[in-house]
Automatic annotation (TrEMBL), chains A, B, C, D:
It comes from Mobilisporobacter senegalensis. SUPFAM superfamilies: N-terminal nucleophile aminohydrolases (Ntn hydrolases), PRTase-like. InterPro entries: GATase_2_dom, Ntn_hydrolases_N, PRTase-like, PRTase_dom, PurF, PurF_N. Binds 1 Mg(2+) ion per subunit. Binds 1 [4Fe-4S] cluster per subunit. The lineage of its organism: Bacteria, Bacillati, Bacillota, Clostridia, Lachnospirales. PROSITE patterns: GATASE_TYPE_2. GO terms for molecular function: 4 iron, 4 sulfur cluster binding; amidophosphoribosyltransferase activity; magnesium ion binding. It catalyses: 5-phospho-beta-D-ribosylamine + L-glutamate + diphosphate = 5-phospho-alpha-D-ribose 1-diphosphate + L-glutamine + H2O. This is Amidophosphoribosyltransferase. One of its GO terms (biological process) is 'de novo' IMP biosynthetic process.
Amino acid sequence: MNQNIFENEFTDGIHEECGVFGIYDLDGGEVASSIYYGLFALQHRGQESCGIAVSDTKGPKGKVLAYKDMGLVNEVFTPETLDKLNGNIGIGHVRYSTAGSSSRENAQPLVLNYVKGTLGIAHNGNLINAIELRKELEYTGAIFQTTIDSEVIAYHIARERLNCGAVEQAVARAMDKIKGAYSLIVMSPRKLIGARDPYGFKPLCVGKRDNAYVLASETCALDAVGAEFIRDVLPGEIVTINSDGIVSDTSRCNQKISRCIFEYIYFARPDSTFDGVSVYNSRIMAGRLLAKLHPVEADLVVGVPESGNDAALGYSLETDIPYGKAFVKNNYVGRTFIKPKQNQRETSVRIKLNVLKEVVKDKRIIMIDDSIVRGTTSARIVGMLKAAGAKEVHVRISSPPFKYPCYFGTDIPSGDQLIATGHTIEEIRNMIGADSLGYLEVETLPELIDEGMTFCDGCFTGNYPMEPPEDDIRGEYER
Amino acid sequence: MNQNIFENEFTDGIHEECGVFGIYDLDGGEVASSIYYGLFALQHRGQESCGIAVSDTKGPKGKVLAYKDMGLVNEVFTPETLDKLNGNIGIGHVRYSTAGSSSRENAQPLVLNYVKGTLGIAHNGNLINAIELRKELEYTGAIFQTTIDSEVIAYHIARERLNCGAVEQAVARAMDKIKGAYSLIVMSPRKLIGARDPYGFKPLCVGKRDNAYVLASETCALDAVGAEFIRDVLPGEIVTINSDGIVSDTSRCNQKISRCIFEYIYFARPDSTFDGVSVYNSRIMAGRLLAKLHPVEADLVVGVPESGNDAALGYSLETDIPYGKAFVKNNYVGRTFIKPKQNQRETSVRIKLNVLKEVVKDKRIIMIDDSIVRGTTSARIVGMLKAAGAKEVHVRISSPPFKYPCYFGTDIPSGDQLIATGHTIEEIRNMIGADSLGYLEVETLPELIDEGMTFCDGCFTGNYPMEPPEDDIRGEYER
Amino acid sequence: MNQNIFENEFTDGIHEECGVFGIYDLDGGEVASSIYYGLFALQHRGQESCGIAVSDTKGPKGKVLAYKDMGLVNEVFTPETLDKLNGNIGIGHVRYSTAGSSSRENAQPLVLNYVKGTLGIAHNGNLINAIELRKELEYTGAIFQTTIDSEVIAYHIARERLNCGAVEQAVARAMDKIKGAYSLIVMSPRKLIGARDPYGFKPLCVGKRDNAYVLASETCALDAVGAEFIRDVLPGEIVTINSDGIVSDTSRCNQKISRCIFEYIYFARPDSTFDGVSVYNSRIMAGRLLAKLHPVEADLVVGVPESGNDAALGYSLETDIPYGKAFVKNNYVGRTFIKPKQNQRETSVRIKLNVLKEVVKDKRIIMIDDSIVRGTTSARIVGMLKAAGAKEVHVRISSPPFKYPCYFGTDIPSGDQLIATGHTIEEIRNMIGADSLGYLEVETLPELIDEGMTFCDGCFTGNYPMEPPEDDIRGEYER
Amino acid sequence: MNQNIFENEFTDGIHEECGVFGIYDLDGGEVASSIYYGLFALQHRGQESCGIAVSDTKGPKGKVLAYKDMGLVNEVFTPETLDKLNGNIGIGHVRYSTAGSSSRENAQPLVLNYVKGTLGIAHNGNLINAIELRKELEYTGAIFQTTIDSEVIAYHIARERLNCGAVEQAVARAMDKIKGAYSLIVMSPRKLIGARDPYGFKPLCVGKRDNAYVLASETCALDAVGAEFIRDVLPGEIVTINSDGIVSDTSRCNQKISRCIFEYIYFARPDSTFDGVSVYNSRIMAGRLLAKLHPVEADLVVGVPESGNDAALGYSLETDIPYGKAFVKNNYVGRTFIKPKQNQRETSVRIKLNVLKEVVKDKRIIMIDDSIVRGTTSARIVGMLKAAGAKEVHVRISSPPFKYPCYFGTDIPSGDQLIATGHTIEEIRNMIGADSLGYLEVETLPELIDEGMTFCDGCFTGNYPMEPPEDDIRGEYER
């Protein structure tokens, strides 16, 4: 719990997927507990560490109270801690990172002091020129105490601020330097600022509750705190909330938008809506598309819980093959679950997932999952269905095959760890023991969202909206 | 975490709902980790405390290693703790009790020393003559250090053992004294014993993995540890596992069976099977029955997650009204969740459950839940659907109305706290704001299970299979 | 921290040294925090576990609130926990036991329910017929959940209570059955009872603060809570405090008294007074006696901190050889100190104790310690003095040589682990590397206390005030 | 435990008193456990937080493993944590800070990445131009994540390093910028560097164990790890340990030395030696001086434990008035001790300290303490002696009266909180209830140390070795 040993502290933890939340109550009401509930709603975006930082816009300038640690929102915050976090403006963060790179030092929000007082920063995404910028900064004498991009962004804001009249201008100029995916919430003593990269990789939205403005990664967090959805922050836009209300700077909204399509397919909560498209509807549509692309005669459509269920429902709606439940998921298997050792008879998959034998026995099953990464889990699940007596198992995947790494904030590994990179679909089918296997096709992805909406499909096609670094920057520091 | 303050230590905590697990590896293999995974699979039966006790049948007689504490299996056990629990025979327990009565002292298994060495006891159920027996024992000088029935049972086994040649005979004679619901696992230095009360209120089954025998509350725990289901322990039966294998004593199997029907409707995991009936199928059938009893024109059938989903699917299958998802549940809201205060804008229900607005908007919704206790939660959920734009909300409950308390191991409160006791269905409909409301009828309950199977419906009818105590014993000690 | 794994749960932990505290505020004031501070003052008597149990004499009969756990008073209790322990009557306990036998189950006070309601018991001492009594009880069907003598005592009180009009009479009759050393505090719903075994092995005293009566192992605990010392409980006496005040039963005060002389020499805090004799004065006198028995020419008298310092001062006062400080003790080395491994350059002794080189260099040192058990620590300390340049090191021990085990509540091991059992003083001197070595003589022990006071010197002479069990009962259950 | 809420994060915590430790094993041996034991020996210098950072000089450059947290060395480190900290070069830190400013963020060592890889910094002392330097740095775009001086120092090293061929040169140039008191240990991937400010306020010494070099605040830490004392780092000196051995840069050793005299009087452990003078001898001498300056007829000299004991012994040696023990200190009152509330009968002083009544009764007592800050504690202790029957209490203080704040690393508050600032000695005597009161005189302080040694007596005289900041910088950020 208290682990802050960091191996290669300055090397990894770059490819995280996170959630951000911010709130400014213009009437002066306390905001810490709303941040707490907002982070709860965003917990699926990061389960390793979390944090809250608050300030009182009527209090002494620059007094920031913060608390962050490794663990779930549930575990990190107690009523006593929340009660101490007094303030009417605040930001929160939940974080995920790949194993080994997680450390308490890297927990967000980042809180710092600079020439104009204090600054809090919460960031979701991944900069592709972070290493480059760090080196540049180091060559002017900068020191780094974390490995998170937020520290690089903070330095740029701090430096630009020397020549800017307002912090939001410094944020804007910093945005001209940083490249990649970022949804950013910045708290200065008197302002709450939200910014989204011009490509719009990662979501960010604005809500309102009485006289309080809310910024959040997903709309489900607005619902959780009783705020009304106002609009998405535009790709490239900077919104600044101060005591007078909300101001927008859209001068950087000039890029062809490259939404992360995987937010719709997998990351986001189904009750969220991004850029006008319901995540749930996207997934239903993915199931319908799969049904059209890869029809098969069967008795039952089932999803691999939880993420496969919605597409399974879509497949069923499209085909009239009954939707059913084949798996029971153990919801108690949490972070501290002790994994079975090699020589034990139990397996992690079986402990997490059990098959409803009487449902699948003697049935032809269509099993929907959102993706296949290494293939081992899929093989085990197919095996469990067969062992339970399923006559046929037809696997359908509600995304195209992963073939390329993601450099924009998603933990998709490099190609050699992706089953789809080196194998044909038939080979994969064989490896996972399915009777048939069908993926969604890249060409059909536009149907998941609204007409005219553009997105990034780099992990499927290798065509990235901006040049990825020559080397896989995600391993740079590790050499 | 470390709380063992006990208010009215000797008064409450009597009506718990628990899960039990036991294993004896005749080949001498270590069993602690299998108990750990078995308890994981039974975690839904009790989330307050848990424990494991093991012994080595080849080691010095009576050496028992045990560990128990407040918390989830996940939280209580670490790899280091598990590694220390060496033994090839062992039992485990997960416990739930009503608020206030939980205390570390009451965690199970109970481990004790008596005239013949050591004994470990894990118990699920509720004795109706526990108070009476405690008083009798006290009048012979007994002392009690917990408020759990296991201690009463232990005393009886210890006393009977003075005149019995074998511990299983002492268990048998103890069973002649205790009345009520119990599924019991007893570990002596060289034997593992399972017993089920003659009414068969609570489930208990036997499984096998290679040369290891397993006893568990539910079959899903057998699946979790890779054991094969052999059979249910019969109501009234005592099974004894020793180095020679398994022996059965069915001399007490003479009672009309009164299975707890609510295990099928709500308690058990859908992937479990009791007395030959799949829990999942029961719930699908409950939905189908509801559809026949209370049909209504609508656009969508939805379940209140998780427990309402299966019956909703059954309703949909029966009616061809599409099954859908109206709610997203936040799986991260755990034991230590900080509840919103009265004056906060957030509510517990909204934080745990969010409505998929685009799904329910302008739709006529059939909403299935497993039960209504006080009615407040139902009212909030119906309200959320309406606020999201649902045109109509028709509530269907996959059980008959609760009108009477349960004395047999279920936390159903006394009548004055049950909305159905003092109100007509129309009144309840009005109170929860539904457009229509339909319950399952007591007469149709037999259809949930197999022909000829008998069960207890006391909580619906007040007709208990045995005379309940004159006073509500569950409050006896509190006065 | 949460360790309650118990190895040989029913076997060991019999030879503990503990501290007890009780308070009854007749005016109804809260007592939990006074118990907390009282236990603090008694912490030196037991550092493994501690606990507090309270009751409200005006509240519902038998409502007991308790909290206990492994750890120091400091670690176990938080302000929140103390605040919940509401009551005007209560008892507390600190416990020590030999390694391996410590477990959360064995923490005291023992709280239980019996025929007349609730009972809390805190016990310091060791019964020599505990095994025998346990067996007897087991043969009538008793079950044991701990390995502490309190449970045996509790059973006897409970059984006797069936035929007694008052709990103090039951305590009295139980005293007729139990044999050995015990200072006992019992809390019933309306009474606080203190009892001391007829031999008076272990101390127990009565104090008063306004209208509150206090019972404690040592007078230093009275000082800590601002209570005035009234008197010692007499060996064999039972004092009962109820709403009318204090009542005494001295009908069992008929034994030749056998105070544990080691309480004066080592166990007790120097600011405590037992049976009229100041512990500090005893130790000064021990030093003076040593000076007379074993004079030697030297430059400096030093004590091994902390316990050797007082006798060193006595030696200096008697001889006019200057008293000095040769060692600095590291007060931060606590329970969780990580011991150096075999292959490390550091040693536990050196980390705990450092020598003041400039003080001892070229000096002839008289080094006073309270005892030598195995001799290894003494050898290391003498070695450190020599390495720091001491010309001569004359070791003086303020007690006679340990040659026999203690059966009465002190953790003195059996003879084969005692250096003095198999070796002459000259051999020991040689083994620890001292230039000379002198012990106190058994014959002179009476001078440590007042004329006519009698005591137990069994650990030095093997002459026990009552027949010890044939076998070393302390290992009985371990075979 | 997990508290990292920071109030005025960028405002306070500047005036800490700390301990530092560093070790480089040229033979490649593991050093983490030696750092652990070294920090143990320095624990008295800081009890709020501690940390260890290690690196392997043969491993990949810049791989640093670190662990730090709030708490004692005992509490923060477990065997598992220590085992993970692999490396043959490392630094450690213990930290104290005034209440309110403590936070996990401020725990040391500071570990960071900069242009040349990684750097670890541990610092004891206080810069008087830290605020100024922070502002300067901020005006070039620097950001600060802590409020500790180490971060300021780190920035300067990082910037200077851009133009230096070696890290020790960068440290040297940084020393030309920073002003105030500092003993510094810096770890680069291949070097361990120790530096002491030219005034020599704070101690730092070098030791050796086989082929491992050790740096430590006090010699007692060398003893703890079995290292031999080599020499003190000179005021202004930089020592650099690399694979070839140790190199010294004395080019900044040009200042009149201003040792903190309070290290001798109070801070340091008596078994340490600074700049050739034994701390213990200093204190004995302080007692002797007091005896000469303020003689009085009396029966007993006693010290207020622990820090007054040595001077009491000196007073006794000088006067032949017997040395005695009047107080017993409760060693278990630790960090988490629950303080008595206002309305409770217990007081913190009485719980921590008890009087040996039989020792002081009817006696004329000379009571030695090291200092009086606010006077309230002294008043309580004198009161306790009188209540125990002391006829007279003559208080002697082994330092001159505090009248001025300290700006150089000591937590001496500003004048308005110091009893000696606004009152005459006679007034103070009256306020604490003593029969007479005598302080050490500033003029006699040179006698505590060796002839010719110079020191800082600013807290007594207001004459600081360098101009203190105009405003009390220690409160600067708080306004």
